[in-house]
UniProtKB/TrEMBL annotation:
This is ARID domain-containing protein. It comes from Aldrovandia affinis. InterPro entries: ARID_dom, ARID_dom_sf. GO terms for molecular function: DNA binding. Residues 22-72 form the ARID domain.
Amino acid sequence: MFSRVRVGFLRATEATELEAETRVKLNYLDRIAKFWEIQGSSLKIPNIERRIVDLFSLSKVLTPSTPRHLPP
């Protein structure tokens, strides 16, 4: 019985985490879309091999989390 309760708790937690991540991604895309709207254009999300590029994940990979200092 304890394992059933624990599994249910993990699933609820995982669902909450997914919802939070989805909100963060949607907020990110909304900010990009607003930027392009101000520039007088519209946001066009690219496709690679018929798959939509996840711009949020791409930005996380390309943007370092801590500043990197180059040696002199």
